């Protein structure tokens, strides 16, 4: 599988460990940075990750920062990407099965290495269930219908 991975400086060590683990497992991994612990802005790396997942260069993405929150928000700015913040394997599996997540985010300050690997494994091994979940996933990329307010009718 083609997987892109990106982080900020706070998650550099976890990103490097996950990248090497994925490569050892036979995946093609694009490391989108950063390469040093110098302070960087997580949105820059989140947007980069979202772009390569949205354009199909990578099939799945893994986003990491200190908490996972900020980078997940930046990844989700792209309407073609569904990034779930996960902290254990069940949420990673359900993100795929029910929400067709194509990215996951985790916090390096909150999630240990073994748990992060378990989350990634669940994320990569789980298929989207489709069915009733498909119409809900479709709505994530479609602007909502705006209802006229009662004051507009007056």
Automatic annotation (TrEMBL):
One MF annotation (Gene Ontology) recorded for this entry: ribose-5-phosphate isomerase activity
Domain of life: Bacteria
Ranges of biased composition (kind: Polar residues): 143-154
Region span, Disordered: 134-154
Name by which UniProt lists this protein: Ribose 5-phosphate isomerase B
EC number: 5.3.1.6
SUPFAM superfamilies: Ribose/Galactose isomerase RpiB/AlsB
Keywords carried by this UniProt record: Isomerase
NCBIfam families: PRK05571.1, rpiB, rpiB_lacA_lacB
Homology family: Belongs to the LacAB/RpiB family.
Keyword Isomerase in record: yes
Annotated gene: rpiB
């Amino acid at each position: 599988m083609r997987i892109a991975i990106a982080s900020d400086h706070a998650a550099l060590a976890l990103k490097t460990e996950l990248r090497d683990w994925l490569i050892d497992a036979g995946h093609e991994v694009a490391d989108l940075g950063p390469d040093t612990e110098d302070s960087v802005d997580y949105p820059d790396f989140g947007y980069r990750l979202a772009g390569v997942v949205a354009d199909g260069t990578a099939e799945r993405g893994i986003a990491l920062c200190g908490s996972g929150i900020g980078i997940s928000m930046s990844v989700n700015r792209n309407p073609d990407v569904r990034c779930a913040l996960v902290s254990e394997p069940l949420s990673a599996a359900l993100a795929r099965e029910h929400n067709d997540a194509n990215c996951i985010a985790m916090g390096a300050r909150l999630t240990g290495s073994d748990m992060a690997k378990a989350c990634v494994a669940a994320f990569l091994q789980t298929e989207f269930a489709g069915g009733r979940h498909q119409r809900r996933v479709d709505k994530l990329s479609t602007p909502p219908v705006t209802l006229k307010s009662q004051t507009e009718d007056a």
